[in-house]
Write a structure and sequence with these properties.
Layout lengths: L1 E7 L2 E17 L5 E2 H10 L12 H10 L4 E22 L2 E20 L1 H4 L3 E2 L7 E17 L4 E12 L3 E15 L2 E8 L7 H5 L4
Antiparallel strand pairs: 1-2, 2-4, 3-6, 4-5, 5-7, 7-8, 8-9, 9-10
Length: about 210
């Protein structure tokens, strides 16, 4: 959801908020059983794990009663808030220089839910894992200046500062050049830095 308008001639503001949410349910329906009842059936002599002929109703009943469906539920949620201001700031031989400044904020949540039997190690054939969850807030400030020094040469300066609630802060600049020596040919060059924090799943998952 967003709104935009003009502060003055050649000066525009934008504000927006957003929400995204996803859930992924994973099920493993075949080939898994619960350890405790199988161990008990083997110990009592009611079940032979090396018997391949399961025509015996008693063996079939044990297989059915110990069969298990491991499940994993991944949930993610993000709230976004953004406000920006763009406009022309001064005149150059190639046209008016454009400036854009803005602030943004991201609220992120991550959740991993493992079924109880798998989490406690009672599901045979399932890698041990634990339920986990985590959240973070990222606040950012950014600016970009576009300067057309001539009709064929343009320079772009940009910078962004991000503050992570769980991973510190980072500032990343960028320089871009665009040159059009003749009609039909354009040359571009860009240099800058970037930063990517670990994902919430990388930070909070207990690991398999």
């Amino acid at each position: 959801v967003g709104l935009k308008g003009e502060l003055a001639k050649d000066c525009e503001w934008n504000v927006s908020i957003g929400r995204s949410e996803s859930e992924k349910d994973s099920k493993s329906p075949d080939g898994f059983f619960l350890k405790a009842p199988v161990d008990a059936a083997i110990a009592s002599g009611a079940f032979n794990p090396f018997e391949t002929n399961l025509a015996d109703p008693q063996l079939q009943a044990i297989v059915v009663s110990t069969a298990y469906v491991p499940t994993v539920v991944n949930k993610t949620r993000m709230h976004t808030y953004d406000a920006s201001l763009t406009g022309e700031v001064f005149e150059l031989p190639g046209g008016n220089a454009g400036l854009a400044v803005g602030v943004s904020r991201f609220d992120q949540f991550y959740g991993l839910n493992i079924d109880h039997e798998s989490e406690t190690g009672n599901a045979f054939g399932v890698l041990s894992n634990k339920s986990s969850s985590g959240s973070r807030t990222v606040s950012a400030l950014y600016a970009e200046l576009l300067m057309p020094f001539t009709t064929s040469f343009e320079v772009q300066l940009a910078a962004r500062h991000d503050q992570y609630s769980d991973f510190g802060s980072t500032t990343n600049p960028k320089l871009g050049l665009k040159y059009k020596p003749v009609t039909g040919l354009m040359l571009r060059a860009n240099v800058g830095t970037g930063f990517k924090a670990p994902t919430l799943s990388q930070i909070h998952d207990a690991g398999s």
